[in-house]
Structures are given as structure tokens and as C-alpha cells.
Specification:
Layout: E1 7-13, H1 19-26, E2 33-38, E3 56-59, E4 61-65, E5 74-78, H2 80-87, E6 91-95, H3 103-111, E7 117-121, H4 129-139, E8 144-147, H5 150-158, E9 166-168, E10 192-196, H6 205-214, E11 222-226, H7 232-242, E12 247-250, H8 258-263, E13 266-269, H9 277-282, E14 287-290, H10 296-299, E15 305-308, H11 313-324, H12 327-343, H13 347-365
Parallel strand pairs: 1-2, 1-6, 2-3, 6-7, 7-8, 8-9, 10-11, 10-13, 11-12, 13-14, 14-15
Antiparallel strand pairs: 4-5
Helix pairs in contact: 1-13, 6-7, 6-11
């Protein structure tokens, strides 16, 4: 598995969870990988880094216009053409988002030199009018598209992009597990439900507390909440009145998390975001997740968990009750979770798809 050439990667920001992937991809590019990315707005709450071991990072100067949640948001990255002149990539990967105004400049720079450009993104939700026209025109510039999920690939095809040039690289943030599947015995006492994440409003911890309290008493679990954040004091105060048995253990990282994954029987993320889902699955845990950007649809299936609509407290309660009513089934679902991240969705598989796409567009350009 090797891409013969130099790869350029243009990103709006460099989130810390992508460092492992960028380094892994750089390690299979014979000419190396150069990343050009800037900083998010402070209000976005995105943890970023500049640290890479194998790839080269060059900072962009991001100019943000309007709030990223606004339909009018656009971003321009200063210095992109100077970066391209300096790094001279054979293939360029760009986020497939027409709101990033410097991307067309980079695409044009590559096209004038007869070099391919690959788009990479979540997909293309339904749009109408001028937004649809601008988006579809932008997508047509790419030689291939990589979608985070099967649903994203379908959305790109619905925009008229040729399906034979759409590839799916399921969004992975962790390598395949190096450890064996943990051995878990029968659940002899109260099952343990685990949450791992930042304690902030969009994670919807109060909804999880209320759902646990609303369960029939025999099903009420031991609830362990791992994490810290701006809402911690408020959430703990709420827990005292709603589900005082909840355990708040603070932020844990790396090896510190392992005992919590091993002690748990079910992993629950009731709000948006979900970087810990794959790690939980690698320890043989079934999962309940709120539907978000579509990446969950490939990762969480009826065989290993529950996807619930966002902001739906009734659905969360129903999923918890269904999960905790059949404890032997939880064990079987945990086995499937481990298999999925070991065999199907992991960094190694994601890198392989990217290399296949890079080879494809290089061959097509000859």
C-alpha cells in the first residue's frame, strides 16, 4: 500500500483527532504529505494541534465571515497559492465545501498543471436554489470524491456526480484494536452505563440522567460519567436532584480510560459528537448514539447498538430500556462492536481507501 507521489491536503482547520490519520497517510506517500490548515473561531470549541510526526504542517491564515452556524458563513485562507508553489503536490485533497473561498484557487492551480484534485467530505444535504447551483458546480471540479459514509456517497450521487468516481472511507479516528476482545462474564449486579466526553450543553447529559431515573427501578444502571467541561457544575447539581447515584469521575485520557471501558456494559452518547465511540467499541461495548452527521450510520447498526434521533428524550429512554432489558444480548452486541472496528472501520482501512483513490485519479490523469 503506497502512493507514489507527493500529496497536498487543504483543510479549514486541523482538529487534534485527525493527527493520527494524517501521519498514517503521510507514511504511505512516497513523496510525503503537506497539510495546509488554519485556526477555527474560538466559539467553535474545536480542539486543534500543530503536531505531526510524519506529515508537514503549514499554518494558514483563516479569515472567517459570519458565524460557522450561519447559512452565510464563508472562509478564506490566505497563503494557499504560496503553499502550493512551495510544496508542489502531485495530487491535492480539498474539503468538498464550496463555502471555503480559497479552494477554487487551489483547484485551478492544480488543473493548470494537469494534476488531479480529490474532494473529501460528509456529503451534500439537500439544498435549493442558488446554494444548490453553487455547490454542484463546485463538486464538478473534482476528479473523485471521498465520502465519510455510505449516506454521504449517496448524497454526492444525487448531486449528479458520477457514482464510479465516488468512494467511501468510513470516518475513523482510531486504529484497529491491538488488544484482544476483553472477556466479560455475566452481568450479576446492576449493569454499568458509561459516558465519555466533554461536559457541555450539546452532549445532553441531563437527558441521560433523566432517562436513567425514568427507568423501572430494577433496570436503573450504575451511571459513570467521564469528562470535564464548562457544564460540569450545572450537570452535577442537576444529577443530585434527578439521579444522585450518577458518578462523575472527571477527565481521563489514554490509559486512564481503560478501566472504565472494561467495567462498563453499555456506552451511551446522547448528544452530538462521538470521538469516543470507536474506542468504546474496541473494548466490546454496545452503544447508543444520537444521529448526527451520518458517520454513525456505518458504525452503529442494529447488530451492535441503537441510533436515536437527536434531541429525542423519549427515544433515548426507549433505547436504554430495550438495551438493559436483555443483558445477554448486550454481550452479543459487544462482540459485533469489536468486530466492526477490528475488521471494517479503523484508520488502516481509511488510509487504504485514500491510497486507492489517489492511485485511481493518478491513473485517470495519464
Amino acid at each position: 500500500m503506497l502512493f507514489v507521489g507527493r500529496l497536498g491536503l487543504l483543510q479549514r482547520v486541523f482538529p487534534s483527532y485527525r493527527a493520527l490519520f494524517f501521519d498514517a497517510l503521510a507514511s504511505v506517500c512516497s513523496g510525503g504529505l503537506s497539510l495546509f490548515a488554519g485556526q477555527p473561531l474560538s466559539t467553535e470549541g474545536i480542539a486543534t494541534t500543530t503536531e505531526l510526526r510524519n506529515a508537514n504542517y503549514f499554518p494558514a491564515h483563516n479569515l472567517h465571515f459570519f458565524n460557522p452556524q450561519s447559512p452565510f458563513y464563508v472562509c478564506y485562507q490566505r497563503g494557499v497559492l504560496a503553499w502550493l508553489e512551495r510544496e508542489n503536490p502531485d495530487v491535492l485533497i480539498v474539503e468538498a465545501n464550496f463555502r471555503y473561498l480559497s479552494s477554487p484557487l487551489a483547484i485551478d492551480w492544480m488543473k493548470r498543471r494537469g494534476r488531479p484534485v480529490v474532494g473529501w467530505g460528509l456529503g451534500a444535504p439537500t439544498a435549493r436554489g442558488l446554494l444548490s447551483v453553487l455547490r454542484n458546480r463546485f463538486l464538478r471540479q473534482f476528479d473523485a470524491l471521498i465520502a465519510y459514509s455510505a449516506r454521504g456517497a449517496e448524497q454526492y450521487a444525487d448531486c449528479g456526480f458520477p457514482s464510479e468516481r465516488i468512494f467511501v472511507a468510513p470516518n475513523a479516528v482510531a486504529p484497529a484494536p491491538k488488544h484482544a476482545l476483553p472477556e466479560r462474564g455475566d452481568i450479576s449486579s446492576r449493569p454499568c452505563v458509561l459516558f465519555v466526553g466533554r461536559l457541555q450543553a450539546r452532549k445532553r447529559i441531563p437527558a441521560l440522567l433523566k432517562a436513567c431515573a425514568a427507568l423501572p427501578e430494577p433496570l436503573q444502571p450504575r451511571l459513570v460519567i467521564v469528562g470535564d467541561g464548562p457544564d460540569r457544575a450545572n450537570v452535577q447539581s442537576f444529577a443530585q436532584s434527578v439521579y444522585p447515584a450518577a458518578e462523575f469521575v472527571g477527565a481521563k485520557h489514554g490509559a486512564e480510560l481503560v478501566p472504565y471501558f472494561l467495567a462498563a456494559d453499555l456506552f451511551v452518547l446522547p448528544g452530538t459528537g462521538g470521538l469516543a465511540v470507536q474506542e468504546a467499541m474496541s473494548y466490546g461495548l454496545p452503544v447508543i448514539v444520537a444521529q448526527g452527521d451520518g458517520t454513525q450510520s456505518d458504525l452503529v447498526r442494529p447488530e451492535n447498538g441503537w441510533q436515536i434521533p437527536p434531541n429525542d428524550d423519549s427515544a433515548l429512554l426507549f433505547a436504554l430500556q430495550d438495551a438493559l432489558s436483555d443483558l445477554p444480548r448486550l454481550r452479543r452486541m459487544g462482540l459485533e462492536s469489536y468486530r466492526i472496528v477490528a475488521e471494517e472501520i479503523n484508520l488502516e482501512k481509511m488510509v487504504r481507501v485514500f491510497v486507492d483513490v489517489l492511485d485511481f485519479v493518478q491513473r485517470s490523469a495519464r
